[in-house]
Write a structure and sequence with these properties.
The complex is a heterodimer of chains A (228) and B (824).
Chain A: E1 2-11, E2 18-28, E3 33-37, H1 44-51, E4 59-64, E5 67-68, H2 74-84, E6 85-88, H3 100-109, H4 115-128, H5 144-156, E7 162-166, H6 174-188, E8 191-194, E9 197-200, E10 202-206, H7 210-214, E11 218-223, E12 226-227
Parallel strand pairs in A: 3-10, 3-11, 6-7, 7-10
Antiparallel strand pairs in A: 1-2, 1-4, 4-5, 8-9, 11-12
Helix pairs in contact in A: 3-4, 3-5, 4-5, 5-6
Chain B: H1 2-35, E1 40-43, E2 50-51, H2 53-59, E3 65-76, E4 83-89, H3 95-100, H4 108-116, E5 120-124, H5 125-130, E6 138-143, E7 146-156, H6 160-164, E8 169-173, H7 174-181, E9 186-187, E10 189-193, H8 197-203, E11 208-210, H9 217-254, H10 256-264, H11 269-311, H12 326-353, H13 356-360, H14 372-390, H15 396-429, H16 436-445, H17 448-486, E12 491-494, E13 508-509, H18 510-517, E14 522-535, E15 538-545, H19 547-556, H20 571-577, E16 580-584, H21 585-591, E17 598-603, E18 606-616, E19 625-629, H22 630-636, E20 641-642, E21 644-649, H23 655-666, E22 673-676, H24 677-720, H25 722-730, H26 735-766, H27 768-777, H28 787-814, H29 817-822
Parallel strand pairs in B: 4-8, 5-7, 15-19, 16-18
Antiparallel strand pairs in B: 1-10, 1-11, 2-9, 3-4, 3-6, 3-10, 6-7, 12-21, 12-22, 13-20, 14-15, 14-21, 16-19, 17-18
Helix pairs in contact in B: 1-9, 1-11, 1-12, 1-24, 9-11, 9-12, 9-15, 9-17, 9-24, 9-27, 11-12, 14-15, 15-16, 15-17, 15-27, 16-26, 17-24, 17-26, 17-28, 24-26, 24-28, 26-28
Classes of the chains: A alpha/beta (228), B alpha+beta (824).
The structure holds adenosine-5'-triphosphate and magnesium ion.
Chain lengths: 228, 824
């Protein structure tokens, strides 16, 4: 499903290289729920960016559903992100000019569907994250936790195979953090569409909150760009 | 980009103002040079001529120096036909030397040559070189007395007078000039020094005694046209104001976070305000300095244009120089910096007063914009402005102010309009199976004021082109109707080549009319005389027609009564009897004379009283025209010449054949040119085009400025939304889709701008320009909507809008996603 083989990532130009990841090997199976932990600067975000094709490795290969990200064009990577991957960041996940509902349905319209046609699907997801009465609200009218829930709902509208979240609870108090984690666990256990039929979704979250990490089924620790 | 647009605005302003000043100075300077030491110029109106005998009377006054002058614009023969100023000088007395110094007298041998040969002329060396004339060469001049051949007796090295007249000038001996012009015993004016005005008035009670240097009406006309450019430049500058406002807003918005942090760490509102304003002062200074430099460069070009425009009517402007006037440089700086500060004031004010917390929140999107009050104020201002404009008697300055007012009103109103439009558009866009237009609209209404002003700058620029075209179209259509209804002819024969000079005053002899009537294929022919005559301080045109022949020609064409009340008792007899005249609509408006009123003209045979019989639409002359029976001109104005002969061709005759034959017939003893209706139409159109050429150029510059505004606004929009764009890309928006979203923004802006431009332009063409055009041309045109032009402008707007969106769109598509995501 998601395979990192001997992946290295070096930032910066020659002379000022910053190695962020060193020969990382990681295999994510369907139904996996992995928490990536580690100290600040150890390469967690980098790993996640490589895993969704937002960035390319300097060495090694990343396979998403069997396809190497290095071999794909920008357009193919974009389509892949659109259909197969859900992404949630620590903050600023939403388009400020769109309502909660519009934010959620946006990915669904990108393939050539109208906003109007996706409204029902969007409402359903809003209901799932417990925000059915906030559909017309704009991001600045939502609390941090509510905004994160909208972001999760959006990441799920395409029913992706892989859900990636970079410190989704980083900006929240522990209570709302746990609520988000509940949601992620709930959706992580769902079957998603894949070219090979229904497959269980895999979830990969980055966190440095031990309480959150403990609830994951599998943990990967990074230190100085190396899996330990 | 801000500096560039500011510079362009100031440049347009400076250049048009400078070129007017330079042209005016040049015309005045040339008048002065021509006048030499002259204190007074004695004449009897510009076109009547004054008896030569009067010179002796004036010379008898003690200390008087009097020099009779003939000054007549003629045209030279094809192929190099152009206006030529013929100056006749009295070489026998020493008055010439006394008044003008060694102007002509330097070259004794040429003076002798002038005296010896009856039809010899001195021309400036530069002129001779230009047209390949040598001493002893022959020139043909088209004058009222027909074509006259004169010989170049000598070349003048560098006469001041020639410079003043644009180089196209020739000097003749007074009597030789009279002979060539057919005005024996008459001179145009007498230049006098050494006596008081009162003495002169006694010597010649009916004379006008004026100080030298007054503008002729044609020159005034030409300058008036250029004045209209100043009006356009003010509009261009207003566009500049909006653009700056836009940019300030954008740049302040961009740094809103910095401002908030500065405020949060303890800077006062005033400190922030002063700091930002100082910054824009510097930008204003840099922009207007650049603009002034650019403006002066542009002014050189404009002056060339001005020279051509004016000289195509009367050769008046010689060397017009751009003089760098410190006062005006200062004015340019003040305008530029003032514009920058005014435009910067409000956004800075808001920025300084914004609460730090508001800005530091993660999602800073103000959904509720308070534009409603501003919109109401805007509507109120527009309504008031409209009422003032409705009063057509206001002056140009008031007109400009009101234009500015309406502009401001629309500016206040527009953010609300943008919001309203987006609210209207949303329900449609959510149904489209593509998210791009929807996202584009969303990006635009994020900052309604910026979008509104971007639309306005572009819209106003478009409006300028539409307004000019509306006016031109109005003129074209009304002259077209006029030509159809007033001219029952197929061919018109005139004395000068319209291709080289539309304002020639060559004439035809009455004998030609008789000859033309006998040409096979001619069914009807009538003659018309047009001459200028002084009236209430202006030169109005008196048009004399052969009434019965003209009426016959109308009847043959089945044109209606002319004018509509011609059939009423007494009208026809008063007209043909010479006690009444028809006046043109602009004459009525200019001199407030209406049907039934009486007016008195000065003619060579004394005062002529005429009754206004009827008012007709006519575009012959911008200072107004009267139409009389030609018999009256013959009797009272002592003028039995024809300005043109109009010919109707017989059924079945070939137009081209007849045209060739009548041209030959009328051209037997003087030059004559025959034109059919289509050709005359072309000439009037091309004159019109020339007149608006410059306004069009300025409008085009404004369009470019407006387009820059779109690029600027959309670019800034992209920069401000880098994180959003990165987010789009993260959730699966492809590069091509990003490009499309940004292009849609440009498209939306230009669509609304095109609508605004069309409406605003039609309004602008209808109201303010109509008033200016009355001031400048003396005509009030009917409103004609130039549909084709509006469509073309709309298409252009869309293309330009897309083009303007392209650079920011490509930039947005290439934004590195990860950098922008991390961007805080
Ligand atoms: N664009 C970049 N250019 C240069 N170095 C970078 C870049 N992005 C990340 N790095 C470096 O790579 C290393 C790993 O960064 P990364 O963002 O993956 O860490 P992280 O584990 O997510 O840290 P945190 O917990 O603070 O978010 C860091 O040392 C960082 O300085
Ligand atoms: Mg990180």
């Amino acid at each position: 499903m998601l395979l990192l083989r001997h992946v290295s990532k070096v930032y910066g130009e020659t002379g000022h290289e910053v190695p962020a990841l060193r020969h990382v090997d990681l295999q994510v199976e369907p139904g996996d729920f992995i928490a990536i932990t580690g100290p600040s600067g150890c390469g967690k975000s980098t790993l996640l960016h490589l895993a969704c094709g937002l960035d390319l490795p300097t060495d090694g290969e990343v396979f998403i559903n069997g396809r190497s990200t290095t071999a794909l064009t920008d357009d193919q990577l974009t389509t892949m992100r659109r259909h197969e991957i859900g992404l949630v960041f620590q903050s600023f996940n939403l388009i400020p000019t769109l309502t909660a509902l519009e934010n959620i349905v946006l990915p669904a319209t990108l393939g050539g569907r109208s906003f109007a046609s996706q409204i029902d699907q969007g409402r359903k997801l809003l209901g799932c994250v417990g925000l059915e009465n906030r559909e017309a609200h704009y991001p600045d009218q939502l609390s941090g936790g509510e905004a994160q829930r909208v972001a999760i709902a959006r990441s799920l509208i395409m029913n992706p195979l892989i859900l990636l979240a970079d410190e989704p609870t980083g900006n929240l108090d522990s209570e709302s953090g746990m609520a988000i984690m509940d949601l992620l666990l709930e959706f992580g256990n769902v079957e998603a569409d894949s070219p090979r039929g229904k497959v269980k979704r895999s979830t990969l979250i980055v966190t440095h909150d031990e309480g959150i990490a403990n609830r994951a089924r599998r943990r990967v620790r990074l230190k100085d760009g190396i899996v330990v | 980009m801000v500096i560039l647009s500011l510079a362009l605005g100031v440049a347009i302003f400076v250049s048009s103002y400078e070129s007017i000043v330079a042209a005016q100075n040049s015309i005045e300077a040339s008048a002065k040079t021509m006048a030499g030491k002259t204190k007074w110029q004695v004449s009897r109106g510009r076109f009547l001529g004054i008896e030569e005998a009067l010179v002796e009377r004036i010379r008898r006054i003690p200390n008087a120096i009097a020099a009779p002058i003939i000054e007549s614009t003629v045209s030279t023969a094809a192929p190099h036909g152009h206006s030529f100023l013929l100056i006749g000088l009295d070489l026998d007395s020493d008055s010439l030397m006394k008044l003008y110094g060694g102007e002509v007298g330097d070259d004794l041998s040429s003076i002798v040559a002038l005296k010896m040969s009856p039809s010899s002329v001195l021309v400036p060396m530069a002129y001779a070189r230009k047209f390949g004339l040598r001493q002893g060469a022959w020139m043909t001049l088209q004058t009222n007395a027909g074509p006259k051949r004169v010989v170049v007796a000598g070349l003048l090295r560098n006469p001041r007078m020639a410079l003043a007249a644009g180089g196209s000038v020739g000097f003749m001996e007074l009597h030789a000039a009279q002979d060539v012009l057919g005005t024996l015993g008459l001179v145009d004016r007498i230049d006098v020094a050494g006596v008081s005005r009162a003495d002169l008035m006694v010597a010649c009670p009916q004379c006008q005694v004026v100080p030298p240097g007054q503008l002729s009406s044609a020159a005034g006309d030409a300058l008036g046209r250029i004045h209209s450019l100043l009006g356009v430049s003010v509009i261009a500058l207003l566009v500049g104001v909006l653009l700056i406002y836009n940019s300030v807003q954008v740049s302040v918005l961009e740094r809103l976070k910095d401002i908030a942090i500065i405020r949060a760490v303890g800077a006062t509102k005033l400190q922030v305000f002063a700091f930002l304003l100082a910054e824009w002062f510097v930008i204003g200074l840099v922009g207007s300095t650049a603009g002034i430099g650019l403006g002066y460069l542009l002014a050189y070009e404009l002056i060339e244009y001005t020279k051509r425009t004016v000289n195509s009517m009367v050769p008046l402007i010689g060397e017009a120089h751009v003089s760098i006037d410190p006062a005006f440089v200062a004015a340019g700086l003040v305008v530029g910096i003032g514009t920058a500060l005014i435009a910067a004031f409000f956004p800075i004010w808001t920025a300084a007063h914004v609460r730090p917390l508001e800005i530091l929140r993660p999602y800073t999107f103000r959904r509720k914009h308070r534009y409603f009050a501003a919109a109401c104020a805007g509507i109120a201002i527009c309504v008031v402005g409209n009422f003032i404009i409705a009063d057509a008697s206001m002056s140009m300055a008031v007109g400009l102010c009101v234009t500015g007012m309406v502009f401001l009103g629309v500016a206040l109103l527009f953010p609300q309009v943008v919001l309203g439009l987006s609210a209207l558009g949303r329900p449609w866009l959510v149904k489209i199976r593509r998210p791009e237009p929807y996202l584009a609209l969303d990006g635009l209404i994020k900052t309604p004021h910026r979008t509104a002003f971007t639309i306005m700058t572009f819209g106003c620029a478009l409006a300028m082109t539409v307004a000019t075209e509306t006016l031109v179209e109005g003129f074209r259509v009304s002259t077209g109707q006029w030509m159809n209804s007033a001219f029952p002819f197929d061919i018109s024969i005139v004395g000068n080549d319209l291709a080289s000079s539309v304002y020639g005053n060559s004439t035809l002899a009455v004998s030609s009319l008789t000859g033309v009537r006998q040409v096979p294929g001619v069914s009807l022919a009538y003659g018309v005389r047009q001459l200028l005559t002084p009236f209430k301080g202006a030169d109005v045109m008196a048009i004399g027609v052969d009434t019965q022949d003209y009426l016959d020609a109308r009847k043959a064409r089945q044109l209606g009564d002319w004018p509509s009340n011609f059939g009423e008792p007494g009208i026809k007899s008063a007209f043909t009897g010479g006690s009444g005249a028809f006046v043109t609509a602009n004459f009525e408006a200019l001199y407030h004379l209406h049907k039934g009123d009486r007016m008195t003209f000065v003619s060579p045979s004394g005062p002529v009283e005429l009754k206004v019989l009827s008012v007709i639409d006519d575009y012959s002359w911008s200072h107004g025209a009267i139409i009389v029976d030609r018999e009256l001109l013959k009797k009272r104005w002592r003028d039995d010449l024809l300005s043109y002969i109009d010919v109707s061709i017989a059924r079945g005759a070939s137009l081209d054949d007849v045209k060739g034959r009548v041209a030959i017939e009328a051209g037997k003893d003087r030059s004559a040119f025959a034109y059919d209706r289509r050709e005359i139409r072309q000439v009037t159109d091309s004159v019109l085009e020339q007149a608006v050429q410059m306004a069009n150029l300025q409008a085009m510059i404004a369009v470019v400025i407006g387009m820059l505004g779109i690029v600027n606004a959309i670019w800034i929009g992209v920069m401000n939304r880098r994180r959003e764009i990165a987010l789009w890309r993260c959730i699966g928006v492809s590069r091509r889709q990003v490009t499309r979203i940004i292009l849609f923004e440009g498209l939306f802006v230009s669509v609304v701008a095109a609508v605004l431009g069309a409406l605003g332009g039609l309004y602008g063409g209808w109201v303010p320009l109509r008033i200016f055009s009355f001031e400048i041309t003396g005509y009030i045109y009917p409103m004609v909507v130039p549909w084709l032009h509006v469509l073309a402008v709309a298409a252009l707007a869309l293309v330009l809008g897309l083009l303007a969106g392209l650079p920011p769109a490509l930039h947005a598509a290439k934004l590195p996603i990860l950098d922008a995501i991390g961007y805080e």
